[in-house]
Amino acid sequence: MAAEAPELAGLAIGYLVGSTAGGTGRHVRMLAGGCAARGAAVTVYGPASLAGIAQARFHVLDIGDRPRPVRDAGVVAELRRWLRRDAPDVLHAHGLRAGALAALALAGRPAQGTALVVTVHNAAPPSRPAAAVYAALELIVARRADAVLPVSADLATRLRRRGARVAGLAVVASPETTAPSPEHVAAARQELGGAGRPVVLAVGRLAAQKGFGTLLDAAARWQRRDPAPRLVIAGDGPLGPALRAQAAAAGTEVRFLGSRTDVPVLLAAADVVVVPSSWEGQPLIVQETLRAGRPLVASRAGGIADLTGMDGALLVPPGDPVALAAAVAGLLDDPREAAALAAAARRRAVTLPGETAAVDQAAGLYLRLSRPSR
User: What pTM value is reported for the model?
Assistant: First the structure.
């Protein structure tokens, strides 16, 4: 990367982030740090958890996860003041709410002013009220952004229909990690209670999108197996109490780990990894599981199939606990199939883009959009 550092010299880039949940925060850190290393002047506007990106200025801006007109108007006014002062060549917003607020803050900009890029990380939620809000945000972003980067092909089709200037699919790369040591894996296995029992692992935010309610329904069907698999869920979120109550009511044994920073170790200690999402973009946990070479059962939702290909995972319909339970049980009953799936995951992982490819894509887009003003 050092050889390419001068390519963004003289370019000012802003990043606007509403939420760092899931992989969004890591993705923004990667882009902001990578572009700063290539000579760009980088400013980040977002929650305090994003502070500390090397070589980047930072302004705390709390967008929030739900529309609140009065607060949102204040956010737009504050962002507008910062943008007038910082005058970035490109503002890259992450998420539809951030993208819509950025569009409003940039309203009335001169023809040669700041270009707006919006990465759309997630598909529309299924519930009607939320879907209606999402559709309104899509229209604002589609009509006002200079370039849109959806994370999956279905999102790209949807946004094109709304008139968006889709600049290709966003390259979202999982963090590069080293394989954990056998000692760490053995310790994690003991912590998870997997001695003599298979471990089924799920990782993600405890929110409706991730489909953990479906996973608990599937896990209830495993209880009569001998030995019964140990279901482990790593992550926290608003549905934590409800999911714990669901498991208790069904008598399902589940280990809730809360938020963890040792996901690569947990993956290596698992017999099967499950991603039961109801809707998705490019979930980092899928990429991390493929790179770890673990057998994966996932929903055929959003961009998951684009990541796994035809044979990198067993794909089941979202929201179907019967199919999910059967897929997991099949892998636990057939070690050869599980080993073949793990090998296919490792082969698929070789084709996944890395961090350099993600920064290359963003840098090339920023340069194209900023040329008129430069």
Answer: 0.86
